[in-house]
């Protein structure tokens, strides 16, 4: 029986989907204006594992993760780079997708863009105005927080305390400092609306995309803990007031990634991009590093922790491999039951990893079926036993870097291997080592055997 921690009620709850065996799951996606970083990796790997596990349990899951492609940060970057907002968002969305693929994250079933859901946003804002939950002032539309008594329940902040701590800005057009924007006036980059040219507030985007693609009430809404307030709090208020029903049955939030005990974020400038990380560590290692810790707990980043994760991955994935036996019913095995018990306990991935280690040891001792069970359970956590394949562009880049390092132009990997072979035959160990080290710096490992030398990605 799967139990998950519901952030709204702050307790472990038995998971029961709204409709039979179907699960509607939404995760707040990226604002596409810059590189994705380790904090994003933690968030999207966590919910990728939840998605995989729900499907593994037999649920029919519809996973929706949005793309915020209209935002102040996107507009600012567009002006700075003399580009259109569409050019900026499409470029960084492509980069984000590449990063997610490299991390072996499954693609969501639905990936809606904010700019493609404007009609639904305007419709919800009109509903809120008609019901008295929102008001328009000079082209801006605000939500009346005082009209929703449950405001603050998710973040455990009563309205009274929020009001006393709020600041009234000079020239503020809002009725209350707590009221938040549903629609913002914007003559330059705005879209047509009943209130003039403008663009949506951040919070209304998710509410609209959820209602359009999943319905008025969904099973799971997940995201980073930093989104609890105000984003998710505001989503609840506007959605429940517009729809007249409960918005989300289970709220789930992952903890921060910290560096020197500070949350990793672009605003603090202490972030590591996924691309930078992948230069030194493979996707399995990054995933292992994240899953060693419980998803709700903060994770402290360090090279030592990632090196330890790399050793753990090596121990697990270097298990003696045998052909996968598709006839084996793994559900009848003790290891399967231990794995499911761990994952049913609010996704206790560290305990699940311990089961995989045990299976790796058994596989090395030639215990029948051990590798088959390991292979299938490791896949539920998103680990891959196959080495990544490089594109032509990636190989070209590696060849350029090695050529620069060794002072010789190489156009094929075979040329490098042949040079090393000749250097070894001449007992020129210095050159042979230089070639090996240059390749190692590009995450390429040479494998020598009786049949010859081959190369693969670390």
Write up what this structure looks like.
With 458 residues, the protein is α/β, with parallel strands linked by helices. The protein folds into 3 domains: 3-134 and 147-156 and 202-257, Rossmann fold (3-Layer(aba) Sandwich); 281-380, Four Helix Bundle (Hemerythrin (Met), subunit A) (Up-down Bundle), CATH 1.20.120.640; 392-457, no CATH class. It has 16 helices and 15 strands. The longest helix is centred in the first third of the chain and has 19 residues, at 38-56. The model has no long low-confidence stretch (mean pLDDT 92).
Helix coverage percent of residues? 40-55%
> Major β-sheet, in short?
4 strands, parallel
Tell me the overall shape: globular
Q: According to CATH, what is the class of the largest domain?
A: Alpha Beta
Which percent range describes the beta-strand content? 15-25%
Number of domains: 3
Rg over alpha carbons: 26 Å
Unreliable spans are: none
Classify the secondary structure makeup into a structural class. Answer: alpha/beta
- Ends apart, CA distance between termini: 38 Å
pLDDT average, as an integer?
92
Would you give the CATH topology of the largest domain?
Rossmann fold
The CATH superfamily of the largest domain turns out to be: HUPs
Which helices and strands occur, and which strands form pairs?
Layout: E1 3-6, E2 11-14, E3 22-27, H1 38-56, E4 60-65, H2 72-80, H3 85-102, H4 118-130, E5 134-137, E6 140-143, H5 159-165, E7 180-185, E8 198-200, H6 202-213, E9 218-224, H7 228-243, E10 248-254, E11 257-259, E12 262-263, H8 274-280, H9 283-291, E13 299-300, H10 303-317, H11 334-344, H12 349-364, H13 370-380, H14 392-406, H15 413-425, H16 429-440, E14 444-449, E15 452-457
Parallel strand pairs: 3-4, 3-9, 9-10, 11-13
Antiparallel strand pairs: 1-2, 5-6, 6-7, 7-8, 11-12, 14-15
């Amino acid at each position: 029986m799967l139990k998950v921690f519901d952030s709204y009620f702050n307790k472990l709850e038995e998971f029961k989907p709204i409709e039979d065996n179907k699960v509607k799951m939404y995760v707040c996606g990226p604002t596409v204006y810059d590189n994705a970083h380790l904090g994003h990796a933690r968030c999207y790997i966590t919910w990728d594992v939840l998605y995989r596990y729900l499907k593994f349990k037999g649920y029919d899951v519809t996973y929706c993760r949005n793309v915020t492609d209209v935002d102040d940060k996107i507009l600012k970057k567009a002006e700075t780079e003399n580009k259109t907002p569409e050019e900026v968002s499409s470029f960084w969305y492509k980069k984000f997708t590449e990063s997610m693929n490299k991390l072996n994250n499954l693609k969501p079933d639905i990936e809606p863009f904010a700019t493609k859901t404007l009609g639904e946003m305007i419709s919800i804002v009109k509903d809120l105005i008609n019901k008295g939950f929102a008001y328009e002032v000079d082209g801006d539309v605000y939500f009346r927080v005082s009209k929703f008594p449950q405001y603050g329940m998710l973040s455990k902040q009563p309205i009274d305390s929020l009001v006393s701590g709020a600041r009234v800005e000079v020239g503020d057009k809002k009725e209350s400092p707590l009221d938040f924007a549903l629609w913002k006036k914007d003559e330059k980059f705005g879209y047509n609306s009943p209130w003039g040219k403008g663009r949506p507030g951040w919070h209304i985007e998710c509410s609209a995309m959820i209602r359009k693609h999943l319905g008025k009430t969904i099973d799971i809404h997940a995201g980073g803990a930093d989104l609890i307030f105000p984003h998710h709090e505001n989503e609840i208020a506007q959605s429940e007031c517009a729809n007249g029903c409960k918005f989300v049955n289970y709220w789930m939030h992952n903890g921060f990634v910290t560096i020197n005990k500070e949350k990793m974020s672009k605003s603090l400038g202490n972030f590591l991009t996924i691309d930078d990380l992948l230069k030194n560590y493979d996707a399995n290692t990054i995933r292992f590093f994240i899953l060693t810790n419980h998803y709700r707990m903060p994770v402290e980043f360090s090279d030592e922790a990632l090196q330890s994760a790399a050793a753990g991955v090596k121990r697990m994935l270097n298990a003696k491999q045998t052909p996968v036996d598709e006839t084996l019913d793994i559900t009848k095995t003790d290891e399967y039951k231990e794995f499911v018990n761990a994952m049913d306990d609010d996704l206790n991935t560290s305990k699940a990893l311990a089961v995989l280690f045990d299976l790796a040891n058994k596989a090395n001792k030639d215990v029948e079926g051990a590798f088959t069970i390991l292979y299938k359970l490791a896949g539920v956590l998103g680990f891959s036993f196959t080495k990544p394949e490089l594109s032509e562009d990636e190989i070209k880049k590696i060849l350029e870097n090695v050529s620069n390092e060794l002072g010789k132009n190489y156009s094929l990997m075979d040329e490098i291997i042949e040079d090393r072979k000749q250097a070894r035959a001449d007992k020129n160990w210095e050159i042979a080592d230089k070639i090996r080290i240059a390749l190692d710096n590009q995450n390429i490992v040479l494998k020598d055997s009786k049949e010859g030398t081959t190369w693969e990605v670390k």
